[in-house]
From TrEMBL:
Residues 442-507 form the HTH luxR-type domain. One of its GO terms (biological process) is negative regulation of DNA-templated transcription. PROSITE patterns: HTH_LUXR_2. It comes from Kyrpidia spormannii. This is HTH luxR-type domain-containing protein. Gene3D superfamilies: 3.30.450.40, Winged helix-like DNA-binding domain superfamily/Winged helix DNA-binding domain (1.10.10.10). The lineage of its organism: Bacteria, Bacillati, Bacillota, Bacilli, Bacillales.
């Protein structure tokens, strides 16, 4: 497909304003990717699709920084990326990616530019994304599969597997009560079409499964989902890493269902003594080590902290300093969808602003005046413990909110210390995952020059002086001199000749 023109025209921007837009977006590349990775892990997608979307976001952002000033070239390049990945990701997921990128970029521009330039820049970005949306919706390569609607009632396990494990190479799955000689609680059988149906008692399938679950071989995976209750899955072949991950995911969801209202009971005596703290941290570390990706780490952290600390509810929010926004990420004993819908500017949350200046938990006996009224009323908030998670020195990047289901409470000091200890340990693997996929810059070089700086440096190498460059780029001589000063500083050069020499040695220019 050759893209010849834009469906939606782009607003006119001054060259200086457009240059500022690209420079700000380019400088925020790493934080933009980190924000998208967090958002990805709240989406109900397969692991392979999440990986492709992470790479697609990286490519999209890099192409924008390198080619966005030429929208036709930018759209053509992104179209090529879609063709390569068209059989792996759905158009809905790509549209969600574009919406997140647009939202993050526009929030960044509003904080970095003056009101007038910010609105002009956001209008330009929105028009560009409209053209990308049109491109996505015209793609002829998206796989189309009608989802069957369930018109009849089915057992919980069957319904769950049809939602999260359809198409997996599993033969059957069962919930087994180990405390009663492997008594079958629920079971589902895989069909040749890759869907799930309940085990038919009339044909003895359930009785046959009761016998099978007693025999564990290399094709059988077993995961505990509640005290005395196991999830047993029979795979068609030898289970690999992907299979193990999916089984762990299903087991985790089942565990949350079983224990939705349960609270962990500590050992006899004081729950906060040193032995309990030691034992709790060891168990928590084991859960972190078993987590395979960022999604598992975040969900395990929220779940374990609530259970070990005996909190009835918990909600994790991600803080993005680039846009100064707070976004819902995970929840315990709350509707996860309600938490994921929360996206607020930091300045709208006075209580949170105080917490973000701290590196230790902060308790508010009454949050009525510290959070917007609609949140207090919707979630019936009274007392609340704010627990920051620090990934970089001096600045929290996430915060976990804990309470007792809306009931006023006063946490013990030992409980606060316990929560703080657990979150400090969780922050290390989370930070590792977030920094494990750095977003390459548009120039693939450790020396970060903006597009305009790179352009001016090339003109200097071509022998143009300040006046010539000013005329060529329609900039004032003062502006060109400012750019030259920035270039010298970034390259560590004392004059223009030395800057050209450094740039040639680093292959920044030709």
């Amino acid at each position: 497909m050759i893209i010849r023109n834009l469906l939606f025209p782009l607003p006119l921007l001054s060259s200086r304003c457009l240059e500022q837009v690209f420079e700000i977006i380019d400088q925020g590349s790493t934080q933009s990717l980190a924000s998208w990775m967090v958002m990805l892990n709240t989406m109900n997608l397969r692991k392979a699709e999440k990986k492709i979307l992470e790479e697609l976001f990286t490519s999209f952002h890099r192409r924008f920084c390198a080619e966005g000033v030429d929208p036709i070239a930018f759209l053509s390049g992104f179209y090529s990326d879609l063709i390569i990945n068209g059989s792996t990701v759905s158009p809905t997921a790509v549209v969600a990616m574009l919406a997140h990128w647009e939202d993050t970029v526009c929030r960044t521009l509003r904080h970095a530019l003056g009101p007038g330039n910010a609105e002009q820049g956001c209008a330009w970005i929105r028009s560009l994304i409209l053209n990308v949306h049109a491109l996505v919706l015209q793609m002829p390569l998206w796989p189309c599969k009608e989802e069957k609607t369930e018109t009849e009632w089915k057992p919980p396990l069957t319904r769950l597997l049809n939602r999260v494990a359809r198409g997996e190479a599993w033969q059957w799955a069962a919930l087994v009560d180990r405390s009663a000689s492997c008594r079958l609680l629920d079971a589902a059988m895989a069909t040749p079409e890759g869907e799930w149906q309940e085990a038919d008692m009339a044909f003895g399938q359930a009785m046959d499964l009761e016998e099978r679950v007693r025999t564990v071989d290399r094709h059988t995976l077993c995961r505990s989902v509640a005290p005395g209750v196991d999830l047993v899955v029979k795979t068609a072949g030898l289970p690999g890493e992907e299979t193990g991950f999916r089984v762990n995911q299903v087991a985790q969801w089942l565990s949350l269902c079983f224990d939705l209202s349960a609270r962990i009971t500590g050992p006899s005596g004081e729950a906060g003594d040193l032995f309990h703290l030691y034992d709790a941290v060891l168990n928590f570390d084991e859960a972190l080590l078993q987590s395979r990706d960022l999604e598992e780490i975040l969900s395990s952290t929220v779940d374990q902290v609530c259970r070990i600390g005996r909190f009835r509810r918990g909600a994790l929010f991600w803080y993005t300093p680039l846009t100064r926004t707070v976004v819902g990420a995970h929840a315990f004993n709350l509707q996860r969808e309600d938490i994921l819908r929360i996206r607020e500017y930091e300045e709208n949350l006075s209580g949170l602003q105080e917490v973000m200046r701290s590196t230790t938990p902060v308790f508010y006996e009454n949050v009525a005046r510290r959070l917007p009224d609609h949140y207090v009323q919707t979630f019936h908030l009274t007392s609340l413990l704010f627990c920051p998670m620090v990934f970089e020195p001096r600045r929290p990047a996430a915060v976990l909110l804990l309470d007792q289901g809306g009931t006023p409470f006063q946490p013990e000091d030992r409980t606060v210390r316990l929560v703080h200890t657990l979150l400090c340990r969780a922050s290390k693997p989370i930070a590792t995952h977030l920094s494990g996929s750095p977003l390459p810059t548009s120039r693939q070089t450790p020396t970060v020059l903006t597009r305009r700086e790179h352009q001016i440096l090339q003109l200097i190498a071509d022998g143009l002086d300040t006046r010539d460059i000013s005329a060529r780029l329609h900039l004032s001589e003062y502006t060109v001199s400012e750019y030259v000063g920035t270039i010298l500083r970034k390259l560590g050069a004392s004059n223009r000749a030395q800057a050209v020499a450094v740039a040639l040695r680093r292959h920044l220019i030709q």
